[in-house]
Amino acid sequence: MSRLSVVLPAYNEELMVGKTCRVLHEVLTEAGISYELVLVDDGSNDRTWEEITKAGEKDANILGVHFSRNFGKEAAVYAGLAQATGDVVAVMDCDLQHPPETLIPMYHLWEEGWEVIEGVKKSRGTESLLHKESAGFFYGIMSKATGVNMQNASDFKMMDRKAVNSILSMPERNMFFRATSSWVGFKTTHVEFEVHDREAGQSKWSTWSLVKYAFTNIVAFTTVPLQFVTIIGGACFGCSLILIIYSLVQFFAGRAVEGYTTTLIVLLLIGSAIMLSLGIIGYYIAKIYEEVKRRPRYIISQIVRGKKDVYQEVNHDRSH
């Protein structure tokens, strides 16, 4: 019988872990689906790990993975994929905003032969207007930069073992799961879902965190910002050329105005463009530096299945 692994990255979700496990157990058991829940504690500073181990004592199908510190959601998703043993693997949030019942039609589509089933949001739920507009703006930028439609995309998806293994085989340290899972291809379809309201706790995504998330993942997935540097250079050259021609015309016509206004404007324009360009290039160099160091994406301090500690003398991901 085929087995479904559900990867649940968790950061400061002590109020939701227990209920999420209970709801998934009820939904999947009622549907007759053999399952495994892989909960990854991304270095939470509350009682999330205690709640995961407590849930594991009640359900032997729960695998808990504990990071030594916070490594970020992308690392937590990757660690969950690496530890999952199912024939098909789903990734969803631990706060139940991704509806567990949607896993059932996703699973049936997989049984029909689809290899990647994307969860597509019908709406963004009851988020504040500012948060919705910020998210829409930054996901729009990410869509154009990565070439993957991010407007209604989410990390909520189900993948065949072949697709999971393809993602795990990629050597880069900085991985953008939402785009990478689409980039690998395979036979893909989608299921729409309504975002549920968060029942407890607070969203970990502020406007500033969305900005950092967008820029970090754009750099991790595409070189478009480097092309933007070239565009800035060309624009500055064009503006400078126009100003040079204008200044020469004014000079030979005897209408040259004394002062430093034009010079100051040109210097500020070119200086700002250079600093912005160096910043973008420097960010790429920093990411290259991180890649060549070959540090692990994450470090695991403990792995528990049910009541048993199954951690083996391994403190990095399986790709090493």
From TrEMBL:
Q: Which InterPro entries match?
A: Glyco_trans_2-like, Glycosyltransferase_2, Nucleotide-diphossugar_trans
The record's subcellular location field reads:
Membrane
Q: Recite the UniProt keywords alphabetically.
A: Glycosyltransferase, Membrane, Transferase, Transmembrane, Transmembrane helix
Tell me a Gene Ontology molecular-function term this record carries: glycosyltransferase activity
Q: What class of enzyme is it?
A: transferase
Is Cell membrane among the key words of this record?
no
Residue ranges of the TM segments:
228-252, 264-286
Source species, domain of life: Bacteria
Q: Name one Pfam family in it.
A: Glycos_transf_2
Tell me the protein's name.
Answer: Glycosyltransferase family 2 protein
What species does this protein belong to?
Blautia acetigignens
> Which lineage ranks, top first, belong to the organism behind this chain?
Bacteria, Bacillati, Bacillota, Clostridia, Lachnospirales
